[in-house]
């Protein structure tokens, strides 16, 4: 379960920080305030939530409540503070060891999903709830930033793809 939870969580945080760095390089911090639709989290909140779900995807599997430091810590406002929050989340996930995950697959995880109170086996919790939410929030941040005009592509999202500058799937 360590391998299924920790590396993807750290990768998602790294991708969130990369998208944030692209916003900072563009010099348009207001991009973080954009939403796809009214009532939805803005891009900055989506990125912050990637860090939250990295913690929610790992700590409950270890029988621990996820640390709230990235929510309650004293961080500067704006992109610098958001990057620091994501850094804290990354450090906290990196503290976990393989031994912390002993028995995680069969453990019972009680948690809240919106207004729903759920109990799931650790394996189901990770694969059907925590990781999908982690990637959902990263995807939404990517979509908002791209829709708002930031020049980013799939490589910025996943860190693996590579395309020539100006490439498009649409002729």
TrEMBL record:
It comes from the Bacteria. SUPFAM superfamilies: DinB/YfiT-like putative metalloenzymes. InterPro entries: DinB/YfiT-like, DUF1993. PANTHER family: BLL2446 PROTEIN, DUF1993 DOMAIN-CONTAINING PROTEIN. This is DUF1993 family protein.
């Amino acid at each position: 379960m360590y391998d299924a939870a920790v590396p993807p969580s750290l990768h998602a945080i790294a991708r969130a920080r990369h998208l944030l760095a692209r916003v900072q390089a563009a010099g348009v911090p207001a991009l973080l305030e954009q939403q796809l639709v009214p009532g939805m989290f803005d891009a900055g909140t989506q990125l912050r939530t990637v860090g939250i779900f990295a913690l929610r995807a790992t700590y409950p599997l270890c029988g621990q409540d996820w640390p709230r430091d990235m929510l309650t810590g004293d961080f500067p406002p704006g992109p610098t503070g958001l990057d620091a929050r994501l850094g804290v989340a990354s450090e906290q996930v990196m503290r976990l060891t393989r031994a912390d995950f002993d028995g995680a697959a069969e453990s019972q995880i009680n948690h809240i999903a919106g207004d729903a109170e759920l109990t799931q086996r650790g394996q189901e919790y990770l694969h059907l709830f925590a990781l999908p939410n982690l990637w959902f929030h990263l995807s939404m941040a990517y979509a908002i930033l791209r829709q708002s005009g930031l020049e980013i592509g799939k490589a910025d999202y996943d860190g693996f793809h590579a395309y020539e500058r100006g490439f498009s799937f649409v002729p």
